[in-house]
């Protein structure tokens, strides 16, 4: 799958456009790009506007019901109302929505910590060490990447039942499939391979062994790749839906995505402005994180070009 | 696939080899154990489950019974495979041609390049569950933005995700013609899902294409320009052939992605109105009916289809792609 893996991270900056010599860029190009850009953000804008509308204005299809075009007041209390309708968690006394946020944050933190650690360690072995069956193991790791999730979804879920691991409706079940990621191993390995071996020889002369070399030299040098992996794991885990829905049953074990789908099926969720208020709260953390770190996303995707 | 090359030639191996191997296995152990437990073992376990009537109560060995049931004429599997392939055939060319066009436009010397990239990539980053919920409301026949726009333009509003009729039948119906069943075309609900998918993935695919364009040496364009090549010739004879590895890769992951699509379809239609793809069918059989055996058998059949399509694409690529 490594067909377009050739470009190292640094090269992404060095792209050269085909020379346009002195001719001006066709204004039509801007027109097309602006239309597509607007199409990309319109659903987000509509979601945000709708989340603070009155139900009456949603039904009457009013795009901007507030002054100066209309005379409704913005309904910021939609958020509080939606949170109230999702209910209260009896264990903690917190609103259930905050419990969902807490669960999502916990799952995400565990997944990031585990997948980054396992990826760095395995990547170091594949990039720097020599051992029997290295190629076979590496191909096996890449092969796990091509296994459709559908194939293992059902047996994984059955494994969580009380006859087997008995993890159903617990945190271990929620994180188990995401603790290691072949993509992560591949991404970090590609980065490690670019670090010149001379560095290792120099470190050895200074008396450093493999573990010190890994922690003191390789990991700091590979920070961009590690950050990319952590960020991608963040959005994948934050947005995960199907697996969590399958292995949890009680509302207080669910995450924001599963909670959102559950809310959509209730009477409260049938009110579009409340559904959109919850959607805004689910999407917002990811959007904010993305705007501050977008360079790592696009470069990470462009470098390895993996995972849809 | 790029096969791992040993980081070091064999001649360089030193006596500390055994220790080095031991360290390597220790570093690999966490990853490998997790792979074995939650990826490799489930494949075998899934195969075992698929041979049983595996429900909450007593289990019964069926042999290939679940597979026979899935493959027999009149089973839900065939329509779901049809829906999966329809979805793929509609979504892949649209997504890829738009993504390639946008990448090519963005690759020119234009202002605001990174702003365009950031904005177009945004739909891929955000939760598909949340954005699919937003789109389901945009498509709403009564309160949706899309029908609102159609009405204000004086056009007939449509039922979008709720419409089971085929698009050709709808167009013909508008002209007062009725079509035979086999000419109905994909349901409007399916087309609506495809439009949403395009919105999500165009920015992602465009990013891959941009990386591919960045790997084409600028000198090639300069040389061709000196020889008097025009814009179309540059694209046809330099960009297109040199971009072919990227194009192949993007097509491959897009096809596989569409064959497995689940989240957004589940949120937007729950598989109704001609959108019950194989992934949705598998999930429903397991989640709603607790038929683990049958769902596992369906999953093996879907995976076989994905594998066959992948091999086919590799064959085609071996002939057409310039590496």
Low-confidence stretches of chain A: 1-22
CATH topology of the domain at 76-159 and 187-320 in chain B: MetI-like fold
CATH superfamily of the domain at 76-159 and 187-320 in chain B: MetI-like
Distance between the termini of chain A: 12 Å
Main sheet of chain B: which strands, in order across? 1-2
Taken together, the total number of domains of chain A comes to: 2
State the oligomer. Answer: heterodimer
Structural class of chain A: mainly alpha
Give the class-level CATH name of the domain at 76-159 and 187-320 in chain B. Mainly Alpha
Give the name of the CATH superfamily of the largest domain in chain A: MetI-like
What is the string of helix and strand elements of chain B?
Answer: HEEHHHHHHHHHHHH
CATH class of the largest domain in chain A: Mainly Alpha
Mean pLDDT across all amino acids of chain B: 91
How many DSSP E strands of chain B? 2
Radius of gyration of chain B: 25 Å
Mean pLDDT value of chain A: 89
Report the end-to-end length of chain B measured between terminal Cα atoms: 12 Å
Total DSSP helices of chain B: 13
Largest sheet of chain B: 2 strands, antiparallel
Give the radius of gyration of chain A: 24 Å
The proportion of residues in beta strands of chain A is under 5%
């Amino acid at each position: 799958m490594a067909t377009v893996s050739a470009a190292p991270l640094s090269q992404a900056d060095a792209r050269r456009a085909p020379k346009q010599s002195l001719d001006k860029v066709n204004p039509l190009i801007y027109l097309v790009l602006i239309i597509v850009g607007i199409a990309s953000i319109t659903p987000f804008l509509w979601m945000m506007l709708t989340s603070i509308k009155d139900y009456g204005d949603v039904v009457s299809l009013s795009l901007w019901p507030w002054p100066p075009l209309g005379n409704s007041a913005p309904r910021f209390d939609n958020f509080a109302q939606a949170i109230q309708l999702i209910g209260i968690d009896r264990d903690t006394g917190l609103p259930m929505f905050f419990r969902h946020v807490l669960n999502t944050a916990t799952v995400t933190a565990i997944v990031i910590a585990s997948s980054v650690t396992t990826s760095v360690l395995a990547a170091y072995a594949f990039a720097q060490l020599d051992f029997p069956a290295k190629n076979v193991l590496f191909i096996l790791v890449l092969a796990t990447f091509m296994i459709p999730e559908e194939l293992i979804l059902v047996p994984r879920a059955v494994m969580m039942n009380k006859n087997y691991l008995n993890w159903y409706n617990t945190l271990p079940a929620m994180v188990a499939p995401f603790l290691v990621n072949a993509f992560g191993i591949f991404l970090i390995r590609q980065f490690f391979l670019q670090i010149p071996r001379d560095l290792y020889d120099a470190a050895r002369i200074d008396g450093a062994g493999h573990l010190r070399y890994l922690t003191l030299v390789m990991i700091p040098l590979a920070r961009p790749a590690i950050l990319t992996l952590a960020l991608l794991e963040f959005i994948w885990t934050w947005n995960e839906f199907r697996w969590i829905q399958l292995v949890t049953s009680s509302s207080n074990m669910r995450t924001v995505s599963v909670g959102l789908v559950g809310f959509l099926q209730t009477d409260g969720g049938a009110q579009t402005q409340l559904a959109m208020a919850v959607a805004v709260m689910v999407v917002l953390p990811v959007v904010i994180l993305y705007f501050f770190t977008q360079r790592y996303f696009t470069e990470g995707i462009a470098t390895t070009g993996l995972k849809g | 696939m790029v096969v791992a090359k040993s980081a070091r030639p064999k001649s360089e191996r030193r006596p500390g080899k055994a220790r080095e191997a031991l360290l390597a296995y220790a570093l690999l152990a966490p990853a490998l154990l997790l792979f074995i437990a939650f990826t490799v073992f489930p494949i075998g376990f899934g195969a075992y489950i698929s041979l049983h009537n595996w429900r909450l109560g007593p289990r019964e060995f069926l042999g290939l019974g679940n597979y026979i049931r899935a493959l027999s004429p009149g089973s839900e599997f065939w329509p779901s495979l049809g829906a999966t392939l329809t979805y793929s055939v509609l979504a892949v060319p649209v997504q890829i041609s738009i993504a390639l066009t946008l990448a090519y436009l963005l690759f020119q010397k234009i202002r605001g390049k990174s702003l365009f990239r950031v904005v177009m990539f945004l739909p891929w980053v955000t939760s598909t569950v949340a954005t699919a919920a937003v789109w389901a409301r945009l498509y709403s026949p009564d309160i949706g933005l899309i029908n609102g726009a159609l009405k204000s333009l004086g056009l007939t509003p449509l039922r979008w995700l709720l419409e089971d009729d085929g698009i050709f039948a709808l167009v013909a119906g508008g002209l007062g013609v009725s079509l035979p069943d086999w000419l109905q075309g994909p349901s409007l609900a399916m087309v609506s899902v495809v439009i949403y998918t395009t919105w999500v993935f165009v920015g992602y695919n465009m990013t891959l294409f941009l990386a591919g364009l960045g790997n084409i040496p600028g000198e090639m364009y300069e040389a061709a320009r000196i020889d008097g090549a025009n814009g179309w010739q540059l694209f046809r004879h330099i960009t297109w052939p040199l971009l072919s590895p990227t194009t192949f890769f993007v097509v491959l992951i897009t096809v596989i992605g569409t064959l497995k699509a689940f989240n957004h379809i589940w949120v937007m239609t729950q598989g109704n109105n001609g959108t019950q793809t194989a992934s949705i069918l598998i999930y429903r059989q397991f989640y709603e009916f607790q038929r683990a055996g049958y769902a596992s058998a369906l999953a093996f059949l879907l995976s076989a289809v994905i594998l066959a399509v992948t091999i086919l694409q590799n064959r085609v690529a071996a002939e057409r792609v310039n590496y």
